[in-house]
Write a structure and sequence with these properties.
about 260 residues, alpha+beta, four-stranded antiparallel sheet, 6 helices, 10 strands, elongated, DNA-binding
DNA sequence: CTCGACTCCTGTTAGC
DNA sequence: TGCTAACAGGAGTCGA
């Protein structure tokens, strides 16, 4: 469930790596290194270098190194970041509440004795040297209304599927999408291109509010809809039993009464 | 190019 | 009690 909101927390945590020298890398889980990245390529590019910055595009966290190298970190659905043993999030919705060092899939050891690691029970995350940032759309936190309209509100695809498409706008996951559509009063299955100008504006406005609320309240599980995202759950606004469907390949909850 | 269907990963939980 | 099957969702691949 880490969505753009959680990755922003992770990025802030990763800021604690800035200024520190990388002594060694453990990328021995070869499933976790993606797109040709290997233990050897990481050793060559990173060991002895200093972390000089962090960035985030959608759900992709990027560490910038003194030699110009970039390291991309992905967290899948259950991945957490730990810096010097501490993480910004204790446990994730839909993930284990246990903490097992066996779930550490990637570790960056610093010369000062600390480390940065990804703890991911389900191994859906990954590590990519020089990730392709061009494949991602503009970040959901900063996307302008104009870009939101031209990239998202087009075509016959369900609006929810569009919101989840990282190449359109990056950072929206299942919970942010459901909460935003619920607040906007828009049915997730509506064709993206059929939304009125007013609905598109409303959607964009609510997206920004949802992101701000989720950052303030602790994560993507902190929405008003979240407690009702269970079979038989009722709409917090009108009390109707929520629809549970699959839209855009994801479990989707929506109110049959006020989302049209 | 677009888009739905399928696949991957594995801990948790519902149900028999 | 112990087992199995369904479920969770991010993201890549494939074929129409």
């Amino acid at each position: 469930m880490p969505e753009g909101v959680e990755i922003e927390y992770y990025r802030r945590a990763a800021d604690r790596a800035i200024g520190r020298e990388i002594a060694s890398i453990d990328a021995s889980d070869t499933w976790f290194t993606k797109e040709g990245t290997t233990q050897e390529s990481l050793d060559d590019a990173l060991v002895g270098e200093i972390v000089i910055g962090t960035r985030r595009i959608g759900k992709l966290l990027i560490l910038e190194l003194g030699n110009g190298a970039r390291l991309g970190l992905r967290f899948g659905m259950t991945g957490r970041i730990l810096v010097d043993g501490k993480g910004p999030i204790e446990y994730l919705e839909y993930s284990s509440k246990r903490n097992e060092t066996a779930w550490d899939r990637f570790t960056m050891f610093f010369a000062d004795g600390g480390d940065l690691r990804i703890r991911d029970p389900r191994r859906l995350g990954g590590v990519i040297l020089e990730p392709d940032e061009g494949a991602l759309g503009p970040d959901a936190f900063t996307v302008a209304p104009k870009h939101f309209r031209t990239r998202v509100a087009v075509g016959p695809v369900a609006i929810k599927a569009r919101l989840l498409d990282q190449s359109r706008v990056a950072g929206i996951g299942n919970l942010i999408a459901d909460e935003t559509l619920w607040r906007s009063g828009i049915d997730p299955a509506r064709q993206a291109g059929d939304l009125s100008d007013n609905e598109v504006k409303k959607l964009h406005r609510h997206l920004k509010r949802v992101l701000a609320d989720f950052v303030r309240d602790g994560g993507s599980h902190s929405g008003k809809l979240q407690a009702s995202r269970v079979r038989g759950g009722c709409c917090p606004r009108c009390g109707q039993v929520l629809d549970r469907r699959e839209v855009g390949g994801r479990t989707t909850f929506s109110c049959p009464h006020h989302q049209a």
